[in-house]
Amino acid sequence: MQISLPVPDSITTWTASAFVMTENLGLGLTEKPAELTVFQDFFLSLNLPAYIIRGEELVLEVVLFNYLQEELEVTVIIAESDAFEFVFPDSEAVAMASVRRLLVEPEGGATVLVPVRPLVLGDVPIAVKAVSSAAADFVRTTVLVKAEGRPQSFSSSLLLDLPASRSGSVAFRFPPGVVDGSQRVSVTAIACLTVCAEGDLLGPSISGLDSLVQMPYGCGEQNMIHFAPNVYVLRYLSTRGPLDPALQNRAIDYMLKGYEQQLSYQRADGSFSAFGQQDSSGSTWLTAFVLRCLLQARPWVGVDGRVLESAAAWLAAQRAVGGAAAEPGTVIHSELQGGLDGPMSLTAYVLVALLEDAYIRVSGSDPVLVPSAAAPLSVCQAQYASRVTSALAYLEARLDQGVSSNYSLSLLSYALALAGSPASHAALNRLIGRADLKDGVPTWSSPDAGLSSSWQPRSADIEMASYVLLSLHQLNRVDEGLSLMKWLSQQRNHLGGYGSTQDTVVALQALSTFAALQGSERSYLDVTVTNGDSDVVADFHIDQDNMLLLQSRQ
């Protein structure tokens, strides 16, 4: 039997093997594969970069190879296109810009350099032909041309909670100074769980987990920038069931590596700092952040109880006059701290770290030691209960004196709610009374948080909304948070996260807490997207099989 196949247009060596199966002799194989070396006596190669920026000059490097035994006079022709123009010095006279002629020695090579300037964005086609009396070759390829300037993205979400055949709209404008031709609009659709529509509240965040789940690295602060989102993503997955085993395993592997690396930044006294023993002191805030994340990570990472115990003991000792938390260390990556704006918010943050994971529970004003299944009794020392009592008294006293910062009040409200303080409802009600209502949704801002540098809400605004949701959940006032939950889910960027590590972590925690309360009935949804001229630009069908698939059209 003979099989005729065309030789692929590639200079390489191909191998072929065969086997036979018979009833009497079984399986038979060739002794060794047959090899076929494909070669050309004359060919060209075109060297191009991965991409260039519009306005830059690109030098087309055409390399000719002549393996014949004779010298060749070669004409190189570059196909002209409206997508680029030829560029030459004023002193260089060229009869035909797209044509070059040269001699190529036998068994030798030569190079032709032709500068061009792309005029359009996208994939620009490049076609080159080399012709001689003895042989010829032709290559067609593309080079990607990107817009000049710095890419920026803006996300606007529309939560479809509508009856059949109803519509909603999203309006936006491109910012001034946008580079002409660089504008791109992508329309995406994914199911999001609310009280009235079935789906998954964290669907957009799940679809963007490849950007949220990352390998931790760097100093003690940088390591946590990437470690923390892994924890809260998996915390959500555990409430909704495993969705992608490969992604879940990768996140757990990253967490294990991040945990091992973070241990190198724990000091002998149990605290954490950016560079461990090299720093003069541990950081109260970083130690609280690490403790908070490690407590949440225990279902997937075998965290040493001694690590948690020593960190909590050090935190308990960082006490200033009046019960406030003291900060003897420094934080290099201040953006990690979110909207933290003083000793009161730091004290509330430390209290949250100590109370959030059932190490200590407080009933009224009396601390009760409650070891969780993963926390041995030795971890729950009386000194932690004493620290909780003093911190709680300090925060309640500050609440009575008046709290001007909305951010501090939001964090204080959550800390009081976790502690079971009788003042927790009053603190939360005071914060809700300061809210700005936008389309019926309460939002908060803090003058100390600075101006937003984009269309998105400031990171501190996201944190405050998240702490309000967590407080409402803790105080069994979930119904009051439904509109805020929808607003928070709409503020995510195109990757499913938010503007910084701290607001992403707290927002994911709040959304996952609410998502765990929702059911997941079957749903079917057909969505048609039109532009201002009523032209259909995209159609999406969402059902139970693809409800977590982020469908996109550009």
TrEMBL record:
Residues 1-78 form the Alpha-2-macroglobulin domain. One of its GO terms (biological process) is nervous system development. The keyword Repressor does not apply. SUPFAM superfamilies: E set domains, Terpenoid cyclases/Protein prenyltransferases. GO terms for molecular function: serine-type endopeptidase inhibitor activity. Transmembrane segments: none annotated. Keywords: Disulfide bond, Protease inhibitor, Serine protease inhibitor, Signal, Thioester bond. InterPro entries: A2M/Complement_sys, Alpha-macroglob_thiol-ester_cl, Alpha-macroglobulin_TED, Ig-like_fold, Ig_E-set, Macroglobln_a2, MacrogloblnA2_CS, Terpenoid_cyclase/PrenylTrfase. GO terms for cellular component: extracellular space. Belongs to the protease inhibitor I39 (alpha-2-macroglobulin) family. This is Alpha-2-macroglobulin domain-containing protein. The lineage of its organism: Eukaryota, Metazoa, Chordata, Craniata, Vertebrata.
